[in-house]
Amino acid sequence: MVFNQLGIHKVIPRPLLLALAFTPGLALAGEVNVTGEGKVSYTPDSVRLQFTARAENPDAQAATRAVKTTIAQWEDNVSAYRNQLDDYDSAALNLYTQRLPPQKDGDKPQTQSVAAQSVSFTLSALDSLNPVLQAAQDAGMEYHVGEGNFFHSNEKSLEREALGKAIDDARDQCQFIAKRLNQSCGEVKSLSTSYGGRPVPMMMAEARGKSGPVTAVGDREVTVTVNATFELD
């Protein structure tokens, strides 16, 4: 029995009370809480890369010359694809000295100069990826390619698409529950979202000289979960 503002009471049918009590996520105050999920699968279309030229030598000038030679060789090797390398950045050459442990007792510690310079860029034409990796290998550059290097150029749009699916799923659940209770799904009282993704393992070139070219880039999935509370009218 429920009293309204005028003091007139209304009797809630017993079957409806039981349904309200045993329906998951349903509150007696005329609200229902549901969790909707939206998924969108996609294949990355771009990659971020960083290659490093490194040289060690007791003579600092010799180490510096070796790095500059490697960078020049890289630039020459990749010249045919240079216009495809977006956001290209060539960092300044870094030179530092490291101490080497003595080879045997009584020996004095030795010092060695280490020179390094990196280049970084994004590549949206993935069909050019293996030739670019080959250019780096031929020049003696160091690099690592993993699943984190690959991305989609329009990931925000994919997330919005998944969000729309999650909201639709939550609304469909609310309407289903309301219909079974001879009610209607009303306004949204609260809504929260969470984002996630599930990359599929991919075959890749892990490091210079260790393996062959990248043979496949696996599909990925962006997932959005919506937790929503609706009024039941």
CATH topology of the largest domain, anyone?
Translation Initiation Factor IF3
Instruction: Report the end-to-end length measured between terminal Cα atoms.
Output: 18 Å
The poorly predicted ranges are 1-24, 201-210
Count of structural domains: 2
Strand content: 35-45%
The arrangement of helices and strands along the chain is EEHEEEHEEEHEHEE
Biggest sheet architecture: 5 strands, antiparallel
Number of helices: 4
Fraction of helical residues: 25-40%
* Computed Rg: 31 Å
The tally of beta strands, per DSSP, is 11
Derived structural class? alpha+beta
Shape: elongated
Task: Supply the CATH superfamily name of the largest domain.
Answer: Protein of unknown function (DUF541), domain 1
Average of the residue pLDDT scores? 83
Topology readout:
Elements: E1 2-3, E2 9-10, H1 14-22, E3 26-27, E4 31-42, E5 46-57, H2 60-77, E6 85-90, E7 94-100, E8 110-123, H3 129-139, E9 150-151, H4 155-180, E10 185-197, E11 220-232
Antiparallel strand pairs: 1-2, 3-4, 4-11, 5-8, 5-9, 6-8, 7-8, 10-11
Helix pairs in contact: 2-3
In short:
The N terminus is likely disordered. This protein has 233 residues and is an alpha+beta fold.
Tell me about this structure.
The protein has 233 residues and is of the alpha+beta class. The chain folds into 2 domains: 2-43 and 154-232, Translation Initiation Factor IF3; 49-122 and 129-145, Alpha-Beta Plaits, CATH 3.30.70. The chain is built from 4 helices and 11 strands, in the order ββαβββαβββαβαββ. It is elongated.
